[in-house]
């Protein structure tokens, strides 16, 4: 089945009504995040395997109200649902977990052939698939050790060229510092990924030690910790922020 791109809030509501009794798989993505672009390839492949599932692609930035309604705290983010019931949520680039969630939702399509097709795609060098299959998820393991947490933090801090770790989401920050930071970056035309630290206490506490910085928000550029609100604001004011972005090969829209 082909992937349907959601174009507006109204379009999304129409699709929900049209497929009220169908299993849906939602892909919340963003063009600035490389893991999202890679997972789009996997998403399309899964749509070809699970033909009774309706696959919907949602731009997390453009359609913020929809993203917020599903508590999207990072991209890529996937939701498997039927009617109004959410069956699974997968945060991060984890194709195997997404496939498992789909198998649980539609067990009649969990065939050996489908499993073999996915495995072959992951190892034969199809564009994006091999790299994506090795990426760490932002969802914690059932018994997450320190090494697992460090791997997850590294994956999160490199999920987009510029990553924000804030309280809440950009459309609804939960503290004044996060709100101010989002406003500053938007004014500068800086594209960014984000993670809501209120949604995961392990990440929240782990980042304090990872960055050796006790407060939030935190900003990372190409996986390197840049600073908090005061540092970023000063860098913007003195022009240093633009220099850092240019050196990292990151373009702005300002």
Automatic annotation (TrEMBL):
Gene3D superfamilies associated with the record: Glutaredoxin (3.40.30.10)
GO cellular component: cytosol; nucleus
Name assigned to this protein: Glutaredoxin
UniProt family annotation: Belongs to the glutaredoxin family. Monothiol subfamily.
SUPFAM superfamilies: Thioredoxin-like
GO biological process annotation, one example: intracellular iron ion homeostasis
UniProt entry tagged with the keyword Iron: yes
This protein's record includes keyword Iron-sulfur: yes
Domain Glutaredoxin, chain residue ranges per copy: 162-225
Sorted UniProt keywords: Iron, Iron-sulfur, Metal-binding
Location of region: Disordered: 105-145
Domain Thioredoxin: 5-102
Role this protein plays: Monothiol glutaredoxin involved in the biogenesis of iron-sulfur clusters. Binds one iron-sulfur cluster per dimer. The iron-sulfur cluster is bound between subunits, and is complexed by a bound glutathione and a cysteine residue from each subunit.
GO molecular function, one term: metal ion binding
């Amino acid at each position: 089945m082909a992937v349907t791109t959601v174009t507006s809030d109204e379009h999304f509501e129409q699709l929900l009504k049209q497929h009220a009794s169908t299993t849906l798989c939602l892909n919340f993505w963003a063009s600035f995040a490389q893991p999202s672009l890679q997972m789009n390839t996997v998403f399309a492949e899964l749509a070809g395997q699970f033909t009774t599932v309706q696959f919907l692609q949602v731009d997390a930035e453009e359609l913020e109200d929809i993203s917020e309604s599903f508590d999207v705290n990072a991209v890529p983010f996937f939701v498997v649902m039927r009617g109004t019931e959410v069956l699974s949520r997968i945060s991060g680039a984890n194709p195997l977990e997404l496939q498992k969630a789909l198998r649980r939702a539609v067990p009649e399509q969990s065939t050996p052939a489908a499993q073999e097709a996915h495995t072959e795609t992951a190892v034969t060098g199809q564009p994006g698939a091999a790299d994506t299959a090795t990426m760490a998820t932002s969802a914690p393991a059932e018994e997450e050790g320190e090494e697992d947490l460090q791997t997850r933090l590294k994956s999160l801090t490199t999920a987009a060229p510029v990553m924000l770790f804030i309280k809440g989401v950009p459309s609804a920050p939960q503290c004044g510092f996060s709100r101010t930071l989002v406003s500053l970056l938007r004014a500068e035309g800086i594209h960014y990924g984000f993670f809501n630290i209120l949604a995961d206490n392990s990440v929240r506490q782990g980042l304090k030690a990872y960055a050796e910085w006790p407060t939030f928000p935190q900003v990372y550029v190409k996986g390197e910790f840049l600073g908090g609100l005061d540092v970023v604001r000063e860098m913007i004011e003195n022009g240093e922020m633009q220099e850092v972005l240019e050196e990292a090969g990151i373009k702005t829209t300002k």
